[in-house]
Design a protein that fits this description.
By secondary structure, the chain is of the alpha/beta class. It is globular and about 75 Å long. About 45% of the residues lie in helices and about 15% in strands. The longest helix is centred in the last third of the chain and has 36 residues. It has 11 helices and 8 strands. Helix 9 packs across helix 11.
Length: about 325
């Protein structure tokens, strides 16, 4: 068994390792810069090179403790963990600081939290969780509260969620911004958004079945895809302007190797389950049992259709029935 195989004893461990590797890859400033320029309005007018090299504080990038390969937690006072006395600890997938030019010589800072969400139907609202994560990062900026606390020191927070996997086609390839806005109920007062617009949540939704028209969403889809082979994936990433250095190449290779191993083990387990059930239920039921096992293990529908010789529309129907049954 190869090195990756030795590290992964089960499909669940494989998925955890895949998530860690994906976080490490997305913490590369080339990817972060493109996400900021496209989905954080403050950076829309600045060149990618400036965002990547100057505005993202490289030393502040922190990846959750499960991603230990770079050991970059708790750097420059930016921890990926928020904890309070009365609330549980939460770990951000990726968190970092960035700044952009304000008036005169002043730079305006903010915190960016990037979350990778493999399960879209979770039983809770991702929007609410995003607001909570952003609020925790906002409140954690003040270590203590006194009568003379100056709340003007609070820096804006963006919590950006990349949702993939089981995103339905009718919601795929979308991006939604949730933010605080002022509404004058009686009369009018002049207050700039810098006074109150401190929490922003962005939800990005992609899947492996539909191709986004937006170039940044497409780049994220290519990286996350389980259908695109390694060589083709590297070529496509390069087409979107990413420099293929050792870090990017190594991350993509690990993603593809782990994905292949997870897929192979899920197929083996699905076939074993199907055979066991098929002995009692017959060939047709055995094929369905194999297919359902693969769906549960997140094998792409297109590959299931190829392996089981089952029409794609039938697999989609079974997948829908399964998702309804578990809700």
């Amino acid at each position: 068994m190869n090195e990756i195989g030795n590290m992964i004893a089960s499909t669940e461990e494989g998925k955890a390792k895949y998530d860690e590797t994906l976080k490490e890859l997305f913490s590369n400033r080339q990817f972060l810069a493109r996400i900021l320029k496209r989905f954080v309005s403050e950076f829309a007018d600045y060149p990618l090179s400036d965002i990547e090299d100057t505005y993202i504080e490289a030393g502040s990038i922190s990846v959750s403790k499960t991603g230990v390969e770079r050991n970059r937690t708790n750097i420059d006072g930016v921890s990926n963990e928020d904890k309070t006395l009365n609330e549980g600890n939460i770990f951000y997938d990726i968190i970092f600081r960035a700044c952009y030019p304000g008036k005169g010589e002043r730079y305006i800072g903010m915190y960016i939290n990037l979350e990778i969400q493999n399960a879209y139907h979770t039983g809770y609202d991702i929007e609410a969780r995003g607001m909570y994560y952003a609020a925790r990062r906002l409140s954690s900026q003040l270590k203590s509260i006194r009568k003379d606390t100056d709340y003007r020191c609070l820096e804006k927070v963006y919590s950006i969620w990349i949702c993939m996997g089981d995103v339905p086609d009718y919601e795929a390839n979308t991006a939604t911004l949730y933010r605080t806005e002022k509404y004058d109920m009686i009369g009018t007062v002049e207050r700039g958004p810098e006074r109150y617009d401190l929490i922003n949540v962005v939800i990005l939704r992609i899947n492996d079945r539909t191709e986004p028209g937006d170039s940044v969403l497409r780049l994220l889809q290519v990286v996350c895809s389980n259908l695109i082979p390694k060589a083709e994936k590297l070529a496509l990433i390069q087409d979107y302007g990413i420099r293929i250095d050792d870090e990017v190449r190594g991350g993509v290779e690990r993603l593809c190797n782990i994905s292949d191993l997870i897929e192979a083990r899920a197929m083996e387990r699905g076939i074993e389950r199907g055979i066991e059930q098929g002995i009692e239920q017959g060939e047709a039921q055995a094929k369905k049992a194999v297919t359902l096992a693969m769906i549960r293990d997140d094998i792409p529908y297109e590959k299931i259709a190829q392996y089981t010789q089952t029409p794609l529309e039938i697999i989609e129907q079974w997948g829908h029935e399964l998702s309804v049954a578990v809700q």
